[in-house]
Amino acid sequence: MGKYQAPRGMRDLLPAEMAVFQRVEALADELAARYGYRSIETPLVEDAGVFERAIGGATDVVEKELFRVVTPGDEKPKWAMRPEATAGIVRAYVEHGMQTWPQPVRFSSFGPMFRYDRPQAGRYREFWQWNVEAIGDAGPAVDAEIIELGLRWLREAGAGDVQVHLNSIGDANCRPAYVAALGDYLADFTDRLPATERARASISPLRVLDSKEPALAAVIAAAPDITEYLCDACRAHFEGVQAHLAIVGIEGRPAPRLVRGLDYYTRTAFEYYVVGAEGTQQALGGGGRYDGLVELLGGRPTPGIGFAMGVDRVVTLVAASSPPELAVPVAFVVGADPAATDLRFRIATELRTAGIAASAELGVRKLARQLEAADRDGAHFAVVVGDELEAGQVQLRDLQAGTQKLVNAADLAKEIDRASRTHHHG
Ligand code: AMP
User: Fold this and answer.
1) What is the Å distance from ligand 1's center to 390 Cα?
2) What are the distances in angstroms from CA 374 to CA 19, 27, 263, 283, 360?
3) Which domains does the chain carry?
4) Is any ligand 1 atom within 6 A of the Cβ of residue 129?
């Protein structure tokens, strides 16, 4: 029989990687709470229309990368796996009437996203994001709050020397003039554009700037600069964001070619990069303002801003600089009688009840083998169950110090607790 493998572009997160993953997730949760962003979960699957409407038809994410879901009885796939979190969160905001809550509503969400992309290094079909959104505040101070939060997470997680790239992509007022100018500029290069980019250049020239096509790098670099087209309101907003960032010591790197791939973005757009790795196209995360999205999904006009952090990429960076530490039991219960699995199981359960991380040898094997297992697991103590149990006692062996003493089984948890607090072994 053939063996199964994980789907292409998807992968198993094994315990060593999960140890790092959980560390960065715990940090995200802790920071979200510290900054007043409350947890939200939305379904992994939504009506495909949520993404088609929110993200826009002429994008890779909707044209090529949506994992559509066919359910029994449907002829055409009606649903899709979420490729990003914002659309679903805004759908929930509208559905639950959150515009009547005190504004802005601040959300944090951590979970998997799905894009049917061509798998390559750092690009998966299932990947994880940490998403933060603030809906109902037109900024610019809240833009700075979110940008600073993302930067703090990356730095505290240990992603290295990270910088934020910053741009404003204008709004419905001023962007059309820029898009027209960009369209004119791109028209001169029509024959150099690959087929998809050529189609896009006529529908939405802005998206060409977002292209990852290496052949286009020079064309994009010489394109007109959006900053010169911003209207007064957008310019004031952009300056406001920079001023608020400066107050907390953050200088965004100007990135006039930075546009977001998704249709609903307005004004502030940003991306995080490791300094020196800008050319790799491997942003650690990014985000921006989406002042038109709530209305697009059926709500009242409401501004919003958020970021999406690429957890997989951050985990890779963090794991490379600080090796994962797997959780180890404090105590490992072994016994002189190989067959007495019931006693070892009972004592481990009692220790766990007392709050001590304990494992036990549940297989039937010789004491020497059991002690090897305790060692291999990295336990600090071995609890050796032997004849002394008849007198209510067990041996407590400090595997790191190499010492051993008889203790009352009734006091075992307390003894372990005390010993692990008084000894500090390397
Ligand atoms: P986006 O919503 O495309 O701007 O993605 C935000 C962040 O998620 C990116 O900066 C990446 O770090 C991460 N990301 C996006 N797509 C993928 C993918 N296919 N695989 C892994 N990480 C991704």
Assistant:
1) 61
2) 21, 31, 56, 43, 8
3) 15-174+230-321 (3.30.930.10), 331-422 (3.40.50.800)
4) yes
